[in-house]
From TrEMBL:
Subcellular locations according to the entry: Membrane
Name under which the protein is recorded: Aspartate beta-hydroxylase domain-containing protein 2
GO function terms (MF aspect): dioxygenase activity
GO cellular component: membrane
Signal peptide segment: none
Native organism: Hucho hucho
Domain Aspartyl/asparaginy/proline hydroxylase span(s) in chain numbering: 212-344
Main location: membrane
Top-level taxonomy: Eukaryota, Metazoa, Chordata, Craniata, Vertebrata
Length: 362
């Protein structure tokens, strides 16, 4: 049953009046305390926003991190704000992003650690410290964890201690979502064809609407984001209603914090994504193969794997990883549908706290 704010206020006022009328009555006191508890539950419930993927999308623009069910109606490349499209620079063999829109590039160092700790304290005051042991340990010792990690696994933003680690995970780690994605292969492939072969967004551009070009030392790497660092993109979602519906049905998609992404990712023949680390170990990156020519490979933590059309690969991108397409132009591009899922050993209470701490725009 749902109560309006006015109804709850009326009940609280009535309870207070009952206590005044029956000052010596234990029943009046108990009733007042009960109604005050109802009021508290109502306020807490109001503060918890539902996943933005559950309520569809709105055509009205919204501020990043505003909560609710409204999508951000801006293009993925951010050109309207005069920001650079992307900035991947190769240093010592690794790819470093320099985009001003990237959370992990603009939020590092001691200042970030302090903000994370204050956000965790604020969360615990509002809700609970129960189940926060690993999160508290991770936030408190974040600087030490990030600098002392072996070079094979070194997340750039946040490390949650005591999580099982491996470059690749079995499909059973997130069986429901893997099977749902694989059943959706025909629909996602058809939607890819619609957006990939659309006319260019504007004169002089080689990219169809919604696509973003990423810098690579060789070849081309294009991405079409539905959710970018926890921010849904309304224009792209409208172009891909079936893909958006699939996202809303996933049980473990990271929909409410900056570590969550969902996109179509295209590598042209000859393309190389240089070795780099992901921002955190609390997620598993899932690739559903849509178009997979021969001579394409993903290497994570030194372990090579090949994509397969209609099948999912689950890997921990906090390990050093790279991808390449060594096929000929006649082979065509390699395309995957990429989504970020929760690591299966991150508990529900920890996920809720991390959603709060890493809310987009916080």
């Amino acid at each position: 049953m749902e109560w309006s704010l006015e109804r709850v206020r009326e009940m609280v006022a009535g309870g207070i009046q009952s206590m005044r009328d029956c000052e010596s009555s234990a029943f009046g006191t108990a009733m007042c305390l009960l109604l005050l508890f109802v009021w508290y539950c109502y306020r807490v419930g109001r503060e918890h926003s539902s996943s933005p993927l559950r309520g569809g999308y709105s055509t009205e623009p919204s501020r990043v991190g505003g909560g609710g069910g409204v999508l951000i109606s801006t293009e993925a490349d951010g050109r309207a704000k005069g920001r650079p499209v992307s900035g991947l620079e190769e240093q010592n063999g690794f790819a470093y992003c320099q985009s001003t829109e990237c959370f992990r590039c603009t939020n590092t160092g001691e200042g970030l650690n302090q903000r994370l700790y204050h956000s965790l304290q604020d969360y615990a005051k509002r809700y609970t410290w129960s189940g926060m042991g690993r999160v508290h340990k991770g936030v408190r010792d974040q600087g030490r964890y990030l600098t002392s990690r072996p070079t094979i696994q070194r997340p750039e933003v946040f490390f949650l201690p005591d999580l099982p680690s491996a470059p690749f995970f079995s499909r059973d780690a997130q069986k429901h979502d893997v099977e749902l994605l694989e059943r959706s292969f025909p629909a996602l492939l058809a939607e890819l064809e619609n957006i990939y072969h659309a006319p260019p967004a504007r004169a002089g551009s080689s990219l169809p609407p919604g696509w973003k070009a990423n810098s690579t030392p060789n070849g081309q790497w294009w991405t079409f984001y539905l959710v970018n660092q926890g921010t849904p993109l309304a224009l792209n979602a409208r172009r891909c209603p079936r893909a958006w519906r699939v996202l809303s049905q996933l049980r473990t998609f990271i929909a409410n914090n900056v570590f969550g992404n969902a996109c179509f990712s295209v590598l042209t023949p000859g393309a190389l994504i240089t070795e780099h680390y992901g921002p955190t170990n609390v997620r598993l990156r899932c690739h559903l193969g849509l178009r997979v020519p021969s001579s394409c490979e993903l290497v994570v933590g030194g372990e090579p794997q090949c994509w397969s059309e209609g099948s999912c690969l689950l890997f921990d991108d906090s390990f050093l990883h790279r991808a390449f397409h060594e096929g000929s132009p006649e082979d065509g591009p390699r395309v995957v549908f990429m989504v970020d899922l929760w690591h299966p050993n991150v508990a529900a209470a920890e996920r809720q706290a991390l959603d709060y701490i890493f809310t987009p725009g916080r």
